[in-house]
Structures are given as structure tokens and as C-alpha cells.
Amino acid sequence: MISVITPVYNAEKYLAKNIESVLKQKNVSEHILIDDGSTDNSWQIILEYSTVDKRIIPIQHPDKKNHGRSKTRNLGIRKANNNLIAFLDADDYYLDQRFEKDLLLLQNHDVDGVYNAIGVHFYDSYKGDKNIRHVLTTVRERIHPKELFENMGPIGPKGWFSGDGLVVKKSCLLNVGLFNEKLIVAEDTELWVKLSLKYNLVPGELFNPVAIRGVHDNNVFNKRDVYLKANALMFKSLLIWGVKNKVAQNRIELIIKKYEKHLYLVFSNQFIGFNKYWFQTLFYAPSLIFYQKFTIIYIKYIKRFIVSKIL
């Protein structure tokens, strides 16, 4: 059976559709909804559903405050009673028979998780451009698990999957360290990359969605600077984690390449900030000094910085 994890923050408009889409899934034995300090009626709605169906598990943080998506999801994962975990954001919903094919694939002992395509739905409150990217969020080709890291975004060019489309073993999530609670955004991307490096994730349905991402004005995040900094932090974290977990050198070098790109984007004219980030990374993963590509990042930046001051 499957445990579905849903972090909830001020999602009263979307919860009914979300919860009812989960309760339709016969293979779900618990839907864990973790309220993340909502100030609307979200918690009351969750409690009402829990009195109707015992599969609804209402949870709050001990202090009942807002802690962000990562810590909230992590609390739900730790509370889950099943070893198969699925995710669903509070403003999203599953389509019928969401898990039928996934469970067939997971009967194979070499499979640790299954990822699928998800679609998009624009709520009436959304007034922005509907020609956005990711109308279908998916990995565009069927890729062998051993080659997923190199091909899947943000490392490779062949698309990526969303948490709404993933089913994975709880033991795998625990072993890679769960969601990074230091990240505001990109925390899910980082976790999927870690899973692809250590476990066998296989494609399910890549061309027809199994879930729908709800788009509205409150969940469209357009702060480019925040994303740039979060991505730099994500690649820094991945790099340290990869070295400590003895990830193959060629894969570490792919992460270094992405790390370099985001360091330059964030710290192009910030000498102190660049130095702090680079040396912090080296402090937590000293063996990086033996990676020529990592050392060259610093040399190239110093040269660029000196040239910019001279000119």
C-alpha cells in the first residue's frame, strides 16, 4: 500500500479536490496532510475529512508554525506507515487509477521508484501567461535507471519529473537524507537527483499525465534571484553529498560543471561571496581539491575578476 504526503499552507480553495482525488485511489492506505502553519481554514478542512475517512491523517508541526515545504514533507515521510511513498502538493490532484501501472513495475525487485508525466490545470485565479513551459512535465525518453542521472534535468537535456508523478520506497528517501531543509526552492530537484544516483528509478507513463499541477497566482514564483541562489546552493549541496557518498568521478565532474555555471551567475561581481561559497564547499568536501575541474573554477574566476578591475 501507498502513503501520500501533502504539505498544506493556506490551500483551502484546493483541498477538497486534492483529498478526493487521493481517496479514489484504492492502493492508498493513508493520506498524510501536514498543515504548515496555515492562517486560513485549511486545518479545519483536513480535520473534517479525517472524521469521514480514516485514511486521512492530519498532522501539524509541534509549534504549529510555518516551516516550509521541505521540513513539512520530511515530517510526513517520517510519520508514514508504508514503505511506498507518493507526493501530492495541496493545489494539485491525481487522475483516476494513478498507481495501477506503478505497482506492477514495483513488483520487480530491482525497482526502487517509478516516475510519470504530470499535466497542468489553470485555475480561474491565474491571470498570467498560459503559454508557460512544462504543460507536460516529463522525462521525454525511456531511460535505463543507470543512465538517468546523466540524461535527466538539471544535469541532462531530456526533461525531468515532478514529485506528483513519483512513487518511491521510504527507505530510499531516508537513506539519501530526505528533502534539504535549507532550500526554499529546488529542494525537490535535489532529492530526485540524489535518488537517481543511488537507486533504480524507472519510467512509468511518460506521455499521458497521471496527476495535474494546479497553477494559480499564489503558486507562480517569479523571483529569478531567489531561484539562482537556491540553484547555486543546491549544486553546492549535491557536490558535497556526492563526494561524501563516493559518487563516480565522471558524475561528480558533471555536477561541478553545473555548480560553476551557477556560481558565476550569482557571484559574477561579488568577490567575497564567491570566495565564501567556493571555500565552504571545499571545507565540507576537502577531497574536491584533487578534482582539477573544481580547482580551475577558482583560477578562472580570479583571472576574470582581475581583468574586470583592470579594464
Give structural notes.
With 311 residues, this protein is of the alpha/beta class. The chain contains eleven helices and ten strands. Mean pLDDT is 92; it is low at 126-130. The strands form two sheets. Strands 3-2-1-4-8-6-9 form a seven-stranded mixed beta sheet, sandwiched between helices. The chain has a three-stranded mixed beta sheet with strand order 5-10-7. It is globular. Helix 9 (249-267) packs parallel to helix 11 (292-310). Helices cover 43% and strands 15% of the residues. It has two domains: 2-219, Alpha-Beta Complex (Spore Coat Polysaccharide Biosynthesis Protein SpsA, Chain A); 224-310.
Topology:
Blueprint: E1 2-8, H1 15-23, E2 28-35, H2 42-52, E3 56-60, H3 69-79, E4 84-87, E5 93-94, H4 100-106, E6 113-115, E7 118-122, H5 148-151, E8 166-169, H6 170-176, H7 187-198, E9 201-203, E10 211-215, H8 224-244, H9 249-267, H10 271-284, H11 292-310
Parallel strand pairs: 1-2, 1-4, 2-3, 6-9, 7-10
Antiparallel strand pairs: 4-8, 5-10, 6-8
Helix pairs in contact: 7-8, 8-9, 8-10, 9-10, 9-11
